[in-house]
Amino acid sequence: MSHRSPALVSTEWLASRLGRADLAIIDASWAWPQEKRDLEQEFRARHIPGAVRFDIDAISDHASGLPHMLPSPADFAAAVGALGIGTNSMVVAYDTAGLMSAARPWWMFRAFGHDKVAVLDGGLPKWLAEGRPVATGAAAPERRQFTARLHPELVRDAPAMLANVTSGREQLLDARSAGRFAGTEPEPRAGLRGGHVPGSLNLPFTDLLDPQSRTVRPNEAIAQRLREQGVDLARPIVTSCGSGITACVLALGLHLLGREDVAVYDGSWTEWALTPELPVETGKR
Question: Rounded mean pLDDT of 120-149?
Fold first, then answer.
């Protein structure tokens, strides 16, 4: 897939382009159900001008028993077209955490063949800290035509990951915390086994971010953390997490290093841990 646009854009970059007809800004904030946040109300109270709300849980495969799995290409095209996003749109995703869930739609668009997509570095917190303009109220986008075609090379499922446990052809990099990876911390979703896919490596997604600004660390710092965790940047890589959201942050970081071929295990640990016949490993590696 060709890289036709930057994967990460600054607040200055976005501010200079507000109002452009080819620009589509999406608020892709996500929260755990137990947080009891009304993200739609938060969006209506304050968002970047021109933005629409991209609901990660709504734009998903509702027939799956797993959270926010990729929808079909037709369903994705219909959903994002209704948000005013067209085949020629330049999409910029942000979230209210700085960077946590915004990388999920970045990966989704790429998985459906749309490379003109980027993540806003620092997200809404950086935008607000700089005193940039905000808008209120509900978005009322005009429907556009969007074409989606799945690029399966960017997606992995459980059978592929089980085969990989034996072959070791691809490195599986887990974005969860060290405690969840080791099985020493409880999973936030009830009923899940602790631990990780055998043979996988661990790099918490937060390690890619500056702890104060929540902006993405420089490329060399990302590369250094990957090397420290045993990742070989010359070999195939798949990323995983709890349910396929923060795995996309790792995929974004690797993309910034030139690895545009990194796949995401969509079902991630939720699928793996809920399937009794799949093997689990605990402890650090």
Answer: 97
